[in-house]
Design brief:
Number of strands: 9
Order of helices and strands: HEEEEEEEEEH
Mean pLDDT: 81
Structural class: alpha+beta
Number of helices: 2
Strand content: 35-45%
Number of domains: 2
Shape: elongated
Low-confidence stretches: none
């Protein structure tokens, strides 16, 4: 084998290594994006209720505005034990139980330390959204928003 053939073989081998590295990086990136998508959930503020949805198979948490008795920003929260739903490093969603609230509904990103607690007559819902700052701002405006929606419904 002459020098030219050895050089071409070495370059070919290096190119294969680079291609393999690129494929691995793309696969890891896609995995991370899919994992992040699995941790996403949405908040929908309708005319008469708020809906928290994580995915079709897990169902939605519906909070009728007229049932809301109390809203509070929690600096921290104790998850407790999952009864049903999803619990992983990216999202806790479903029915949980702890000593403080008994059986309650939870939708939080564990990486976000604070959460909003909504008390209804027979149910407690705890959730957060995107970041500590967004969760706090949401809590600050939620009580006034719900009061306004209830006024609108009374006028109708």
């Amino acid at each position: 084998m002459d020098l030219k053939e050895k050089l071409l073989k070495t370059i070919s081998s290096k190119n294969q290594q680079y291609m393999l590295l690129i494929i691995v990086l793309v696969a890891v990136t896609l995995y991370m994006l899919m994992a992040r998508a699995e941790a996403s959930y949405s908040l929908d503020f309708g005319d008469t209720s708020m809906t928290i949805s994580a995915s079709d198979e897990m169902g939605s948490i519906v909070i009728p505005y007229e049932d809301v008795q109390y809203i509070e920003l929690l600096d921290t929260y104790e998850v407790g034990t999952m009864i049903s739903g999803k619990s992983d490093r990216l999202l806790y969603y479903g029915v949980f139980q702890n000593e403080l609230y008994g059986e309650y509904l939870l939708c939080v990103r564990p990486s976000v330390e604070n959460a909003i607690r909504i008390n209804m007559e027979d149910q407690v819902v705890i959730f957060n959204y995107e970041s500590e700052e967004v969760t706090a701002e949401l809590c600050d405006t939620m009580e006034d928003f719900i009061a306004e929606k209830l006024k609108e419904e009374q006028v109708k």
